[in-house]
Design a protein that fits this description.
258 residues; globular
């Protein structure tokens, strides 16, 4: 692969990923899920789920997810009008209804939502600072880290499940004005020793669950910088939409370069 010919900018250790990088990212991410029985819910009452990231642009506090997640919810709700959307954080569930995106784009596969109506319910949740007009540039071979939710397990929670978090690192395979492509064949788990994997309900195939989750650029100082939203994995690559397409008010800039 192209990344195999590019020397890694630095050695990334599993210990650093687990103890330094993941804790910095985790509070601003979560799982977005569909159900018809909020706030109680049940494991078999969640037809689908995805991931999201919360960002503070300085102008607005936003939730970002993929267009295909929002589109999938609309398609399911057209068949079941009782279907609702919820946000799952580490220790809380927030009903996310009624909602309409500030903007959405099918080609870029991104949708943005205003979080102002939900701030009172998110007092212990963090928003990742994002300067939309100075998103760091990703170079070939750079380390990228991803957080997503590949499935769920039955648990004694208010919705009867717990979403299992997946956290991985790999390198940038290719970069365009709109997208960065990550090399899935070189995915590095955050744990040095493989952990027994629980039986997941609604498991996404391959590296599913990372899709619609955030993509962070990692430099040698190990401070994660939000640069993209993971959108699709296929043929050993993960395609991510660069967040330089986002304006600070949550609208999408469709003219590239900015």
């Amino acid at each position: 692969s192209l990344t195999a010919m590019v020397k890694p900018p630095f050695t990334l250790k599993s210990f650093d990923l687990l103890h330094l990088v993941e804790p910095a990212i985790r509070p601003c991410c979560g799982s977005i899920f569909f159900t018809q029985s909020l706030p109680s819910g049940a494991a078999d009452d969640i037809p689908d789920h995805g991931s999201f990231v919360l960002v503070d642009t300085g102008t607005r506090k936003l939730l970002l997810t993929c267009h295909h997640v929002w589109d999938g919810f609309q398609a399911l709700r057209s068949k079941n009008p009782k279907l609702k959307m919820g946000l799952c954080f580490s220790h809380s569930i927030v009903p996310f209804e009624p909602i309409h995106p500030i903007d959405q784009d099918e080609n870029l596969d991104i949708a943005s939502f205003d979080m102002k109506p939900f701030l009172e319910q998110l007092s212990d949740i963090e928003f990742f600072r994002l300067n939309c007009y100075r998103v760091p540039r990703v170079k070939l071979g750079d380390w990228l880290v991803f957080l997503g939710f590949p499935g769920r397990i039955k648990a004694h929670t208010s919705i009867g499940v717990r979403f299992v978090r997946g956290f991985h690192a790999t390198r940038a395979y290719d970069v365009t004005d709109r997208r960065v492509f990550a090399n899935l064949t070189g995915m590095k788990p955050s744990r040095s020793q493989p952990q027994p994997e629980p039986e997941l309900v609604g498991r996404k195939g391959g590296y599913g669950g990372i899709s619609s989750g955030p993509c962070f650029l990692l430099r040698e100082n190990l401070v994660p910088q939000l640069v993209a939203l993971a959108t699709e994995d296929a043929f050993g690559q993960l395609s991510c939409t660069l967040l330089n397409c986002l304006n600070s008010d949550g609208t999408i800039n469709r003219e590239f370069p900015r």
